[in-house]
Amino acid sequence: MTTTIPLSITVDGEQRDLDVDPRTTLLDALRERLAVTTPKKGCDHGQCGACTVLVDGRRVLSCLTLAVAKDGADVVTANGLAPDGGSHPVTEAFLANDAFQCGYCTPGQVCSAVGAIDEARRGMPSAATADLAGDDVVLDRAEIAERMSGNLCRCAAYVNIVTAVEEAASR
Amino acid sequence: MTTMDARSMGTSVRRIEGPDKVTGTAPYAGDTVADGTLVLYPVQATVARGEITAIDTSAATALPGVAAVVTHLDAPRLADDGDPEHRVLQGTTVHHRGQYVAAVLADHAEVAAEAARLVVVSYDEAPSTTGFDPDGGSYTPSALGNGQAPDSVVGDPDAALAAAPVVVKASYATPMEHHNPMEPHATTATWVDGRAIVHEASQGADLARQTLATLFDAEVEVSSPHVGGGFGTKGFLHAGTVLAVLAARTVPGRPVRFALGRRQMFETVGYRPATVQHMALGAEADGRLDALVHDVVGATARYKEFVEPAGGSSRSMYAAPHRRTSHRAVPLDLDAPTYMRAPGEAPGSFGLECAMDELAVALDMDPIELRVRNEPSVHPENGLPFSSRGLVECLRTGAERFGWSTWDRAPRRRLVDGWWHGVGVGCGTFPAFRMPGSTAEITFTGGRYVVAIGAADIGQGARTVLTQIAADALGVDVGSIEVEIGSTSLPVGSIAGGSAGTASWGSTVVEAADRFRDKYGEDPDDGDHADAATPDNPWAEEFAMAAYVAQFAEVAVHADTGEIRVPRLLGTFGVGRILNPTLGRSQLQGGMVWGLSMALHEESVVDPRFGEVINHDLAGYHIAANADVREIDAQWIDEDDGYVNPMGAKGIGEIGIVGVAAAIANATYHATGVRVRSLPITCDDLLTDPAFG
Ligand code: FES
Ligand code: FES
Fold first, then answer.
1. Which fold has domain B18-27+435-533?
2. Which of A54, A80, A106 is the last residue of a domain?
3. Is B110 on the interface with A (CB under 8 A)?
4. Where does the record place the region Disordered (chain B) (predicted)?
């Protein structure tokens, strides 16, 4: 038999214990072992962003993350952003601005947006930031488009995604 | 003819399933996680053509956790439905590299993948041809992918070209492109008491059911409540679905899940085939066309014919007394091509609309005026009047909004901060039709109207707009309507395809609503119900019906690197009534981004030695990302067309992409003076052209 390794993570506020094959990605651990199917698999190669979740508050591609490397981590998916069934400013803004069509990339976009807004608040620059030395990042449309470009959307809801992130960031 | 009154139609009702999508709780086909589910991993052919001589599955079968390895030697037999793509594991012949030759079922994905690698397949390889050579051996297909005849001729186009004072002749090339919806195809199948229960990513659950029922000679149920994009690849069933249902049959009672990997999306689910389009336009000095010729050579698969109808829109776009379209096909040992967003019109508009731009340059005429001058009063081939045709109004309205007249027509005039700027226009059309064969059922229950029809929501918003249509047809608020779609447990629905989904289902819902009111009046009792089949459109043979668009692009080209950006895109559409402005704008803009992506990014590159798409992932096959898209705007003209359907709505799924690549190519010429006649347009196309400087 394949060796398995015990793992304990918090997923959307709930503690989950499981044994995983060391080859198992965080994405497969969530989807296949824990039946948490909010993060989607668009490529399994870190090229599309559909699997984006927040791990200890930062956006990560769960398909490029080995589950065993995240023992003890706090994982939040798009379904866990608002505790107790409330709404979250990012998901609200996505709904209000029709920032999706088929919805398959959307849970990843939403988590990525939460991460991107937080990164900007912490002053982290992007390729679109003019003043790399400054510590104030203004999250304008060009900044948002740049920071959200790791999340592909084949329905191409990009314009509305940028508007939604702009709106959520201003709240 | 007048359209029905609108109260909800024309308003921006939010997507009904929106909350489920933003939280990721809407179930897609790969999201079904039942205990005991087996994961399928395929073994795929490593030769482009040949025969399997042996398969050794012993090492794979011995791996702990493997439940079954299925090959052609032991796979259940399938009925022949006439589609060679569906003959999965039925014999030894390999038609293309990547074809499924075995399937492994295991408890976990990692084990299944590992076991698949341990299956040893031996081949007797045959010589193959997989590189598209437009001058290689071609043949005349029996029909185009849209069912039309391959050739059409009016008058004597060659003589008219010889006599025309101004002639433009040029050839344009479009590459192989893959759909790549973000959700790869996925199937979860379970056989219970001789019935197959299938959760499928499908643009038409009933079409999937019919196909599987024929192949397996069994009862089949298909559900497909949410679909992560289709764009044509999830219409007709591909081999992967058949493989999953076939493999599941060997393990009755256990769910089998096959979610394709991204690489398999380049190997087994179709694509838009490459074309070369030979255009010839002959005109008078005032711009009136004497002759319009569009001769297409396109790739197809040797084992299954699909011919991209790229010359199709040249049959109706412009008036010309002498005209010809033709299509020839070059057979290749590849996976079979299929419908991809605006099949025919998307690549065909690149040839036609770039040639029109070149003609405008040759005539020293505004390209908008050239098009207006060639506006036909009736369909130029069949003589039918148009039910409505907004092209000229789209051109005029769009030009105004875009600021077209503020640009000098001469190329290579505007250099700003090291970037050449230019503008271009490209037009397009897409037919508006209705598919037969749906049934809608309306039941009054608990004070609400439940509207059931096996329609598909692939992101276009069917659930939402059918709710709006039903509300208006019944004369009630949207809150009183509950629409059920996406399952074969409901009355039959035609597919989401051909930009005809909403037109077909909507017409059916309206008919059912009329019957319901006729039967029960305004005050029905609980349980009252009525149903109706899709009514024929009495005007279908009387009018030519189509959507139109004028696309405007501004490009900026870096003077040193040749990098091309698209700061602005504007599409002005004549598409009848827009049923939901927010959702409609999303869909049209999405189509326009596809056009941008087609213009600048997308190309599947086949290695002719092996018959493999070498850029088979999203790092190698570029689709437009967020930062590629700048200002993009879709607007529409007021158009009241009572002939297309009671709602007055023409389909909008495909028209958005049409004409965009030409607009960008024409704008690139205007910016730089360099004419690029093949897609995608890349920096090296510009840098290697002496005219770029
Ligand atoms: S699935 Fe992880 S980036 Fe695509
Ligand atoms: S909404 Fe369909 S891929 Fe983004």
1. Aldehyde Oxidoreductase; domain 4 (3.30.365)
2. A80
3. yes
4. 129-148
